[in-house]
Design goal:
The chain is 66% helix and 0% strand. It has 7 helices and no strands.
């Protein structure tokens, strides 16, 4: 018997696949998002393995799917597919956090093996890169490297 994925543990591959397949309960997505966000920060601070890369994609998929589902409820006649929003959300969330829009777009195109979402991804990633720039926020890997260098953390040399 196959176990159901749990929202707060693991790399999130199964959760992302469920979200992209439309198998996520709408009411649980915000809770799962907040739980993964908090546990991801705790996990990284505790120096447990797992990294930031996969969790960013999971969070982006959850946030995108949730926004798409809300748009489908608000505009039922438009035939909105929340799964498409999840794909765009992965690229946009990655872009906002890492501040590397081309990397985010290419990564998601490689994962989905399709260019059909390129235009929405470009628009979303453009918006996602504006927010941290307007707020004066540094890319996450730069911030982590600076913090680790200040504290003498041995992981500092592994952050690129």
């Amino acid at each position: 018997m196959r176990q159901r994925p749990r929202a707060g543990v693991g790399g999130g591959d199964e959760i992302t696949q469920r979200v992209l397949a439309g198998g996520a309960a709408l009411a649980l997505i915000p809770l799962a998002f907040l739980l993964r966000l908090a546990l991801g920060a705790v996990s990284y601070a505790a120096a447990t393995p797992g990294g930031l890369f996969a969790p960013m994609l999971v969070l982006g998929a959850q946030l995108g799917f949730f926004c798409g589902a809300l748009c489908r409820i608000a505009f039922p006649d438009l035939g909105i597919a929340p799964e498409a929003f999840a794909v765009v959300g992965m690229a946009a969330f990655f872009t906002g956090v890492v501040q590397a829009p081309v990397t985010g777009i290419v990564l998601v195109i490689e994962m989905t093996a399709g260019f059909t979402m390129l235009l929405p991804m470009l628009a979303a990633c453009f918006a996602a890169i504006l927010v941290p720039n307007l707020l004066g926020s540094a890319p996450i890997y730069d911030s982590l490297r600076q913090r680790a260098t200040r504290t003498g953390d041995a992981r500092a040399k592994n952050i690129h």
